[in-house]
Design brief:
Blueprint lengths: L1 H17 L25 H23 L5 H21 L8 H22 L10
Helix pairs in contact: 2-3, 2-4, 3-4
Amino acid sequence: MRKITMTLAAAATAAIGFAAPASAQYYPQPVYGAPQQGYGYNNYGHVRALQARVDRIQRDLRHLAARRMISRHEYNNRNQDARDIERRLRRDARDGYGLNRQEVYQAERRIVRLEQKIARDVRDGRRYAYRW
């Protein structure tokens, strides 16, 4: 009988611990004095994440061009678009505050649009003719 009581008591305390309301759970307090834009101090983590996506796109473009899955003209145009995104990211992140929400949104939209253009270029129907 004592084992059953101890087991039930342990289960009850565990259930109470897991059923704590969200307001009672730990949440770090914001650090005042620094801009609160997310993704680390001064939002440079978001800039690095977006830059990594652009680098991956450029690497994929080189791979597609080497395998002749896109034409030379398509490669040059999409590579120029990727460089424009890089330049804008660098320019927007140059000030001391990183990117604001609108700049992050615009950069993400430009990257998504570029990825869609590359996907369209790959499947545009021309396999091996009129490429290089």
